[in-house]
Specification:
Helices cover 51% and strands 18% of the residues. With 93 residues, the protein is of the alpha+beta class. It has one domain: GMP Synthetase, Chain A, domain 3.
């Protein structure tokens, strides 16, 4: 007999929806970036998350260099915020 599942269970478990879940996770990173990094709200703006890469528009080359040195910490902070690996790398624009 078929088991009845909730929409949430189907959304979280269906392998066919993996790309959709990845896109939703990426959009959450974009919308919550200022919440995760309030200290960066004036110097960095997230543009998109594509294939595990977060693209950030950075105010100037000095900040770009500084953030480049800290990108591994930023990746860890984002992934720990969501308790799953969403971002694998960061590219600066």
């Amino acid at each position: 007999m078929n088991e009845i599942k909730s929409i949430a269970e189907v959304m979280n478990e269906a392998k066919e929806l993996e790309r959709f879940r990845t896109a939703v996770s990426g959009s959450r990173v974009l919308s919550e970036f200022k919440k995760i990094f309030p200290e960066l709200k004036k110097v960095a703006r997230p543009r998109k998350v594509e294939n595990g890469t977060l693209f950030l528009r950075v105010e100037d080359s000095v900040w770009r260099s500084e953030l480049n040195l800290r990108k591994h910490l930023m990746i860890e902070k984002i992934n720990s915020h969501y308790e799953k690996k969403i971002v694998k790398q960061i590219r600066f624009l």
